[in-house]
Each structure stands twice: as C-alpha cells, then as structure tokens.
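Write out the 3D structure for:
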Amino acid sequence: MVEQYNQATSYKVFIHVDAASGGLFTPFVDSEPDWDFRLNNVISINTSGHKYGLVSPGVGWVIWRGKKYLPEELIFEVSHLGGTMPAMAINFSHSASPIIGQYYNFLSFVFEGYQKIHQKTRVVANFSGKN
C-alpha cells in the first residue's frame, strides 16, 4: 500500500521498523513476511541486542538503508583527541564491552549459530508440558 501511495503522490512515506524484540529473532526462524530492507520503503530498522542478540542490557542498534536517510539532527560534531568527529551518541564515554560482546557473538555464531539458538528458544517457548 505504501509503495502504491508513493507512486501516486509527490509526498513520499517511508517506514521505520521497530524490531526491538524480534529483530534478532525473526530473521533466524521465520522467512515470511518481508519486513526489512527487502521492502522498498523501509529506510531504518532498530533492534535490541540485549534481548535476542544475547548480550548485556543496554545494547541496541539502529541501521539506515543509506546515509541519505540518516537525519542530520542525529549527528553531533564532538571534540575528541584534538579534533572533531561526527558521532551519533550523545555521550560516548560508556564502556565498549557490550558492543564488543555483540560483535564477538556476530562473528562467533554467524547466521547458523543464531538460527540454532533461536530455534531451540522457540521450541522451549512452545513447550506445553502435556504428553
């Protein structure tokens, strides 16, 4: 429907997918329906790494289809180590350990590892205990 609307008007509508709970679960256990960048009008997706990303609380991610979709209001110029750099974090002085943990998991588990873990999670969640 959004695609049809966008083709019929000059005022374009874009979609942000709030995949906080399912963004690191659904892609590994369900291939349908499409909800991600496979859809033309999805321009950003967020997810919580601390839920199904298997890392400590507070880790979350947002990705954009491309730099042109990243709102300039979210980019801050910060002074760091004698120069300035663009940053999306308001306060970047937090420990990097949760991010490094998520990166380690991505490299260690890869798609197949997350798929195996989350398929087991689904089996446990659906277990009724009835024989």
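The two ends are 45 Å apart (CA to CA).
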